[in-house]
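Researcher: I'm preparing a figure for a lab meeting and need a structural model of a single chain. I don't have an experimental structure, so a prediction will have to do for now. The sequence is pasted below. Please return the structure as C-alpha cells so I can convert it later.
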Amino acid sequence: MSVPFTTLPLRPELLQGIAQIGYETMTPIQEKGLPLMLEGQDVIGQAKTGSGKTAAFGLALLNAIDPELRKTQALVLCPTRELADQVAMALRQLAQRMSNTRILTLCGGRPYRDQLAALEHGNHIVVGTPGRIGKHVQKRSLRLRDLSVLVLDEADRMMDMGFIDQVMDILYHAPIDRQTLLFSATFPPEIEVLSTSIQRRPQT
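Model: Understood. Here is the structure written out cell by cell.
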C-alpha cells in the first residue's frame, strides 16, 4: 500500500509544493529513507535514476534549512553538470511555495565571475560538481561553516570519474556534526570505505 506524503512531518509549504507538482504517494526510496532523513540521521540509499531519490533528499534538506539565515546550509555534490542542473531544478520545484529560498548551481564551464556575484548575495542551498565547488571553497568565496546537510548524489559515478579526492577536500571545510546523505546505484567496496570515513552510524 502506497504511503501519502501527508503522513510525514514536513513544513506546510513543502506539502503544498508536493501537491502542486502532483506527487501523492511515496516511492520505496522515499518511504524508507525520508523518515530517517527527517530525523537527522545519516543515510545510505541505493537508488537508480527515476526512483525518486532526488525528491527524497530534496524534501529532507528543504525541511531542515532556516529561510531566515542567508547562509549555505545544504550542499549537493553531483558528478556532472547535467545532473546538477536536474537536481537544482527539482529542488526549485519542491521549494516553489517556500518564499525567498535561494538555490544556486555551481559547475564548471560557466563564468566564474557570475558565480562569485551570486555567492555574495547568500544562498541556502548549493548544488554542483566537486571541481568548481572545491575551487570556490579553496578561494573562500563559498564558506561551509553553517552547513547542516551534505548530499553525495551518484557517489559511484563520482568515484569512477576520479572526484573523490576533491570531495574529501571539500568535506575538510565542512562541520563534523553535519548530516550526510549518500546515494549510489552500485555499492563497490570503495563506497563502503567512503561511507565509513564521512558518515556517522548511517542507516541503509
